[in-house]
Amino acid sequence: MYEGNGRRLNKPKRVAAFVFISPAVLFLVVFSVIPMLYSFGISFFHYNTSMNADTIRFIGLKNYVSVLTNKQFLDSACWTFIFTVSAVALNLLFGMTLAVVLTTNFLPRISKVMKTVFTIPMMIAPIVIATIWKLMFSPIYGVLNGLLVSMGLDRVEWLSAVVPARIALVIVEVWATTPLCMLIFMAALKTVPEELLEAATIDGANWRQKFFQVTMPLIRNFTVLVLTMRFMDAIRMFDIVYNLTNGGPGTSTETLASTIYKMAFRYYNVGEGSAGAFIFFVLIVLFSLLIMKLTGKEE
């Protein structure tokens, strides 16, 4: 181990460094690495917890083949991708819009109140969010259908029809996660030098040119951070789906996470569920690397 100036630490300092980091490393190994390796090993076995232990046997890659040829798994993968792209795109749009509005000098008193209001969803547990929105999506007594009826429109079966249920999930996800994007973009906008914006104004640039040609390039790293973070979070979405639609109607809103969960814990096929989880893990890594590659730039 080395100090900041490149010199090697002496023995007492090396020992002290290992002592300080060892609890965190031990915690990581015991609660993350070992369970992950154990799950990876199980993925090569026929392992059904509803059967006797003597039925457990090594079957090689059959679980992986079964998962990759499972229509439900493939359908949920397709919907998960659509859901993730839709939610993240709206997160970026609404998060940036709110950040721009709240960091300007337009109605400063209202801006302070709105900053507090918009951060409330961050303080609510996902299961509570799902419960609140489930009541709002109620076909008879729900607030949303009440508004539609008051405007002379028909009621919508939000959670019992395929397209409305999918739209409902995107709405809830965007509502719950946009505040975090907004806060990051607000911090990013504070880093843009006023001198550059003033110089652009003097050169005759309008607000659109200043935003896209001055501000956006300067906060590129923050945008990549929000994009990567939200992508990895949205693609793993489980709790809101489980509590709001439970994958319904039918299996139309099942995400990869909920499909794998039911595969392992509802149908007791732990081996196949573990294989699905590792396929899911590889997909997350590949997509994350792809995003970082596409949004990266030369030094």
Spatial strand arrangement across the major sheet:
1-2
What share of the residues does DSSP label as strand, in percent?
Answer: under 5%
| SS-derived structural category | mainly alpha
Tell how many strands the DSSP assignment holds: 2
Shape: globular
Amount of helix: 55-70%
Total count of helical runs of at least 4 residues: 13
The overall pLDDT, averaged over residues, is 88
CATH topology of the largest domain: MetI-like fold
- The separation of the N and C termini measures 28 Å
Element order, helices and strands? Answer: HEEHHHHHHHHHHHH
The H-level CATH homologous superfamily of the largest domain, spelled out, is MetI-like
Assembly of the depicted chains: single chain
How big is the Rg?
Answer: 24 Å
Quickly give the CATH architecture of the largest domain.
Orthogonal Bundle
* Tally of discrete structural domains: 2
Biggest sheet layout? 2 strands, antiparallel
**Poorly predicted runs of 5 or more residues:** none
Main CATH class of the largest domain: Mainly Alpha
